[in-house]
Amino acid sequence: MTWLQPWAAWAFAGVPVIVLLYFLRLKRRTLPVSTLMFWQRVQKESGRSAFFRKFRHLLSLLLHLLIFVLLVAALARPVFDRGIRENSATVLILDTRARMQAVEQDGHSRLEAALQLAGDYARQAGGGRNFALLTLGAAPEVTVPFTDDEKLMLGALAQVSPTDATGDIASAVSLAESLLAARKGEHRIVLLTAGATGILAKPASKLITHSVGTPRDNVAITRFATRALPSNPETSEVLLETQNFGHTPIRTDVELAFDGRTIEVKPLSLAPGERRLDIFTSVPRPARSARGWLTAKLSAADALALDNIAYATLPATKLNRVLLVSKGNTFLEKLLAVDSSLKFQFVAPESYQPGMGEKFEAVIFDGAVPPSFDLNTTRGNFLFLKATPFATKDALLDQPVITDVDATHPATRLASLQNVTILHAQLLALPAPHDGWNFSAPMRSAEHPLLITGERGRQRIAALAFDVLDSDLPLRVAFPLLIHGTLDWLSGGQADAAPSLATGEVLALTAGQSVAPVPLTAAPGPRDAQPQPTVTGFFQPLKNGFYQTADADSKHWLAVNTFSAAESDLRDGGEKAIPVSKLPASLATLHAWPPSQWLALAAFVLLVAEWLLFHRRKTE
Amino acid sequence: MNTRASLFDSAFLAKLEQLHLLARRIFRGDRRAERKTRQVGASLEFADYREYTPGDELRSIDWHAYGRLERLFVKLYEHEQDLAVTFLVDCSASMSWLPEEKPDALSKFDHARRLCAALAYIALANLDRVNIHFFASNSISELGVARGKSEFHSVLKFLGAPPQPDGPTRLMQSVQSLAQRTRRRGLVFVLSDFFDPHGYEEPLGLLLHSQFEVHVLQVLAPEELAPTVIGDLSLREIENGSVMDITASENLLRRYREEIAKFNADLESYCLRRGIASAQVMTDTPFEDTVLRALRDGVMVR
């Protein structure tokens, strides 16, 4: 047994006062009567209860003392320690991932149920029982370090809010284990979650899992992306993936809105478990003045609302200035001329002056590397064709075959380069990272790189190992896609992809780049126009929406979405995910009366009994 | 509320007059002031005949009867004499007891004196001989014989200056003293609470044995019949100062009420068996109601 408020023992100093009052009360009140004759007869007749009368006052005193002791004991708030021993340490892991926002049949969210349970645990803090609170959002976070302060725990729980992120429950348990490793006494981890789908290694500490919530049907947007169409610069292509995580077919409408204005509504029918892809090709690219917000919203009302809406930014129209340094390349010149996203100038190699490249987003050196070029000192973004800074003095590659193409690299992502015939190519050496440069080879012929890309901060460089005129590449569709993608990547864009981030994903911001920490989901109002604190260094969004990033030159919008089937799939939530361990006896009675209230009740019963025995007056 | 100072005030005297008138109305045509005795006397009221015996006065012979029957009969007349009414008023300490919560109320002794005054007034108005004795452990003081309404002021004076109530009730000694000193028998009113630890049977029996016609008026306070005080008490008897510690519970009070009710019932039963007229008088009952009820019940006057 633990006394949560042992200072109440000082009240026992009042025992002598009770005894003193008792003896004072024993001074009987003198009452004159006309005769004692009848009183004496009555006393004589009631000889059977003489024994009780003899101890009547002693019993009264004992009752008073017992009532007083019970009240003091109740004030000291005793707690049975069958389940919690002295100096026990408990880590509460509170799941705040997106799934905890799911609303149950009773109208309360799973997080509310978990918070209620967590509050019940937190009220046991004190008397050697230490609690720590971990919140599991995108990553586990120590919200409250070990403390026995009940109010601190309850205050922290009141501040907990759900995130839109997905996270790893095993990492939270691992962190809890680390925290408990330094503690003495009994260890316990209490996991409050909605379906622990993570594969949990059995922790060394006792793990009590409370799985709140019940299996629910849900329909979600699991992917929403936009990209520019190189073939049609005026429009964007939008990919929408929806999935029915329910047991019944569902019909819903998806509404596409551009900068808050609805541009298309499309009905969707999803069978149970069906995943569906929809592509919208007629979405206009935003003008310079537009924000470029694109939102997709499902009209279905289900358990989890946050995955019914998705955010994306449309790739802004950008006119790249390109300088072509060449002795003449018909195919390349024609290609650059017809690409409406480009504005190119042509100069002969002998007319090229150092420093010209800084005025253009990209400079193409066709067949020549200027003598003044130095990878470390020359400013600008460069594409080298045939003659490259990475060429070795070894023999040329004869008729190399393109064997590996990095489909994820922005330069080669859209180009189909298989079966391209190349007469011969320079033998390039992929440099090792140095001086801040990182290099990769998105196109290879066996072990020989045919395309090398390098990146240092915002400076980029690409080198193609062969002359396009020595191949049939200009005759293929891949040629404009390769050149367009490479130039777009050189000019700082992510090819045609719009910037987006998964909720909880960490974005490393470059020097001078900052992000407003509060997302917007609707058009900014007057309050949003107020200056907001910004995040620099690393940015981890925990809510879905549009975040404004800013650097020295421009501002952009960053779309953040959950897009997690694990968070949206609520069918396996609830008790089925992890068997719920039974609570220890002391914790199982959290909702029952604590011992202090039982003691107070006993004192009250004794008080009533004392009144009935000694002070009751019948009305006959 | 009446107080001691106003025990025999003008309002009280007015009530006595009303009581007297009421008494007259009740006994109209029955008996007046004169009390007939079983003795044959020389009054004008014919009583009976008896045969003439030598020595009888010749004038008492009924010659009309002799003419009809030719036998000598003597006419007998009722002997009329006044009635001796004696009041024994208990002035022991128990009679002056007052409940704590009513210190200004009339005590049993006050109430007994008022009753005594009322009954004495009626008796004096009927030309009876009235005597009053205060007694406690013995007969303390005596009024002396009074006759006629003109003596009522001396009655009031005597009742208004009683001896200090003190000592225990000893009815037997008072009765013995009365029986020894009083040659003329008559009515005896005993006004007491009868809280005599030695009992009431022997003194009342002695009065009957001494040819007195006894009337008992038991004066009690309602607080004596049903005390309400609860808790740890030290009871001090007002007569002898003895102390008794009790813890008054509801159960104990109930048994006390049963005990005193049994005592009163025994007293009433005893009086009934011995032909003693008895009445219980509560101090919270107006004395005139008590007197009228007693008159109507034929208790006080025969």
What is the compact description of this entry?
The complex is a heterodimer of chains A (620) and B (302). By secondary structure, chain A is α/β, with parallel strands linked by helices.
Describe this structure in words.
The complex is a heterodimer of chains A (620) and B (302). Chain A is α/β, with parallel strands linked by helices. In chain A, helix 1 packs antiparallel against helix 4, helix 4 runs antiparallel to helix 12 and helix 5 packs antiparallel against helix 6. In chain A, 21% of the residues lie in helices and 29% in strands. In chain A, a hairpin with a 2-residue loop joins strand 24 and strand 25. In chain A, the strands form eight sheets. Chain A has an eight-stranded mixed β-sheet, covered by helices on one side. Chain A has a five-stranded mixed β-sheet with strand order 6-5-4-7-8, sandwiched between helices. Chain A has a four-stranded antiparallel β-sheet with strand order 12-11-14-15, with no helix packed on it. About 3% of the residues of chain A have low confidence. In chain B, 36% of the residues are buried. Chain B is of the alpha/beta class. In chain B, the strands form three sheets. In chain B, strands 3, 4, 5, 6, 7, 8 and 11 form a seven-stranded mixed β-sheet that branches. In chain B, strands 1-2 form a two-stranded antiparallel sheet. In chain B, strands 9-10 form a two-stranded antiparallel sheet. In chain B, helix 1 packs parallel to helix 9, helix 3 runs antiparallel to helix 4 and helix 5 runs parallel beside helix 6. Chain B is elongated, with a radius of gyration of 23 Å. In chain B, strand 7, helix 6 and strand 8 form a beta-alpha-beta unit. Chain B contains nine helices and eleven strands. Chain B starts with 9 loop residues before the first helix and ends in a 6-residue tail after the last helix. Helices cover 36% and strands 26% of the residues of chain B. Chains A and B meet through strand 2 and helix 2 of A and strand 9, strand 10 and helix 8 of B.
